[in-house]
User: What shape does this take?
Amino acid sequence: MMSRRLPSFLCFSVFLITSLGPIPQAEAASLSLAAPSAVLLDGSTQQILYARNPHTRRAPASTTKLVTVMVALDHLSLDQIVQIPAGMQFIQPSKIGLQTGERFYVRDLVKAALIRSANDAAESLAILTGGSRAGFALLMNAKARSIGANNSHFMNPSGLPSSGHYSTAYDLARFIMAASHYPYIVETLKMRGAVISSLAGRKIALNNCNKMLWHTNGVIGKTGWTREARHCFAGRVQSNSGVVFVGLMGDAHRTLLWSDLRRVESYSTGTALRPITPSPKLSSRKETVKIQKALQKAGYFKGNPTGFYGRRTKAAVRNFQTANGLPAVGTVGPQTWTKLKRYL
Assistant: This one.
């Protein structure tokens, strides 16, 4: 039975809507990310730090599950028992093979939905909370409006493709901002993996889809992918001066998504965000050879130029950048090339 208690997040939501005001214009030219839609929000001021097509409607894939879990936790207790409804075996992947009639605690299905991005776990939570997929979608859309995500509309709790199911990069950033007020969600998003058990003792291992957790402890969030949506991410980056909330949508490859997140993190861990210098894509080995020759003459690259931009070249570029007072990112952007080409 659905609880009638008011969400603990309600007061914050009302404040958010009344105090935000007009969205400031962002200077996107100083930051180069691959995602066709992207937003960075300052966690303290809620100002947009970077934006590219922030309000373009796109399929959000499994970032949807942030809203699913928030709505479920607004109505269910973590220790409430969920009996898996019929039909979960027909849900499209990703799923963990939940069986009709099995019983799990809400806390474990939340882990499955956020860590493993399990569609059958999300659907089970939704049916218990809203009575049906359609009933739960109404709650999701109300939740989105309450936190100022006005360009999103949900048809299901999993994020699987569906006509009329969409969101925006700006709204993704608002979703993770809201989710950060749920301690159990934050705790779960930090986990690289977990093991959950049914009440009958069947154990299921979960591995986190967010591979940034193996790179850093400062980037947490929810990934998403479908053929239509491509790669998406709603997350937060912890910096020395606060928190930055990130919404990325439409990255063509997973490697581009991780690259975008590493670039955001590398520039948000100082005392304040700094503009990110665009780094050109090396389209040929010839361009890499030119870089290596310049580094060689500058005394930072040993051996013959190979045309391969690997670990040795990146280390040489970082050393050159450090010596020249530039951010040591390991890629050659306009500032680095201006100093480097003097050696050719």
Notes: Residues 71 and 140 are 6 Å apart (CA to CA).
